[in-house]
Design a protein that fits this description.
mainly beta, Tachylectin-2, Chain A, 2 domains, 34 strands, 0% helix
Length: 416
């Protein structure tokens, strides 16, 4: 079953979203794409989709393909300067040793960004660091020019975000390690041995680094640091975990149509092997800070896809938006002809349990604070509150959903 609102490719494998850009009234989203198969492979392409919001994306021709010195076109970012010149910075990999990539530039050859021309390699891994992984450039503008961060892993188990500076987006100078943490450190949260896609932003005068947490070829979750940043150096005051469950990975930072900081995730475990497609992208999330805690809230664009508030516990179709205000414990049940999902809320935590006719399929938990928001879209469930995010595949299917809680207030809307 294919979700109605979450982006999936017509066929093939997708993962990391990146280069999400709002321009001329629509969003462009790029992503790692492996055509012709439903499992990941190192020969990634840059897929491309666009639409008026991130729940209305249409798939476009592949933007950048392997060849000309690239065996794989891996994650990167898209930047437009003051003269409206656009560049894609991506990780160029070669097999079989694709752990250490190189950063290369491509430029669009048309106004719709449908075709791209590859340019030179602009950044390589520093020779004086004992790196076992190096990839995922993120470029942002700073007061003195441009700054690039690249994720890395040192052989001793230290995750690093490496820093580069440029005046013209073409010539880059390595300026050291912006932030690092050992995989041996576990409190208040473990941050892995490699940061994939490390991205640094500012909210309310505080600096935030958000990243994917990787260790020994295992993909874990999205984590973050909150602290201060100055001239290429980040000092962390607090570390936190943003996502829970086994689905969310590869958070991609972007600015929405109003310039607000947002994230989009790759969602694992969503697939239809018979239809020959695998993986999806999440709904967009708006970022804010609550003291030293990073909060991701459902983006207002989701509400544009709501119908009127449901007057009963039943919604037609398999896409719904639920706001559950409780806080004292209770159970929210989402039922279809194929499965029943129960969300068990006790103070500070929600646990999601899915049952089908055959078995108990899924049990996972997430910290909660304040109201709980649940977005269901066919085979995808996303649960969010100020305490964190939980995304997971489900077996919900059929033609309608029955949604009710034994306690608290529930607002229920069909989505389309």
């Amino acid at each position: 079953m294919r979700p109605a609102l979450h982006f999936t490719a017509t066929s093939g494998w997708i993962n990391d979203p990146h280069g999400v850009t709002y321009r001329d009234g629509q969003y462009h989203a790029f992503y790692q794409y492996v055509p012709g198969q439903t499992v990941w492979g190192p020969n990634c392409h840059w897929g491309h989709a666009a639409g008026p919001d991130l729940l209305s994306l249409r798939e476009l021709p592949v933007a950048i393909v392997p060849g000309d010195g690239d065996d794989g076109i891996w994650t990167g970012c898209v930047v437009t300067d003051d003269e409206d010149n656009t560049r894609a910075f991506y990780t160029s990999t070669t097999t079989p040793d694709f752990g250490i990539g190189r950063i290369r530039v491509a430029t669009p050859v048309d106004d719709d960004w449908l075709a791209w021309s590859k340019d030179e390699f602009v950044v390589e891994a520093p020779a004086d660091l004992d790196l076992i992984a190096y990839r995922d450039p993120f470029v942002r503008r700073e007061e003195t020019g441009w700054r690039m961060f690249v994720g890395g892993a040192l052989r001793d188990g230290t995750a690093v975000a490496l820093s580069y500076i440029s005046d013209d987006l073409q010539h880059w100078t390595y300026s050291g390690i912006a932030l690092q943490r050992s995989t041996a450190e576990t409190e208040p949260v473990w941050m892995g041995a490699l940061w994939e896609c490390p991205q640094i932003l500012s909210i309310d005068g505080r600096a935030i680094m958000v990243s994917s947490i990787w260790d020994n070829d295992v993909l874990h979750y999205a984590g973050y640091a909150v602290g201060s940043y100055n001239d290429g150096r980040f000092v962390a005051d607090n570390w936190g975990r943003l996502t829970f469950g086994d689905s969310y990975y590869a958070p991609s930072l972007f600015s929405d149509s109003e310039g607000r900081p947002c994230l989009l995730f790759w969602m694992r475990g969503i697939a239809d092997e018979q239809a020959e497609w695998a993986s999806a992208h999440s709904i967009p999330y708006l970022l804010s800070l609550d003291d030293d805690r990073l909060v991701a809230s459902v983006h207002p664009d989701v509400e544009k896809h709501r119908g009127g508030r449901a007057e009963s516990v039943r919604v037609e179709g398999t896409a719904a938006d639920v706001v559950w205000s409780d806080g004292e414990g209770g159970e929210l049940t989402i039922a279809s002809t194929e499965a029943v999902v129960s969300i068990l809320w006790k103070p500070g935590e929600a646990t999601v349990v899915e049952r089908t006719a055959h078995a108990l399929n899924t049990t996972c938990s997430v910290p909660v604070s304040g109201a709980v928001r649940v977005v269901i879209d066919g085979p995808i469930l996303e649960l969010s509150s100020a305490g964190g995010l939980l995304g997971l595949p489900t077996d919900l299917g059929g033609t309608s959903l029955q949604i009710a809680a034994d306690r608290g207030d529930v607002e229920l809307f069909a989505l389309s």
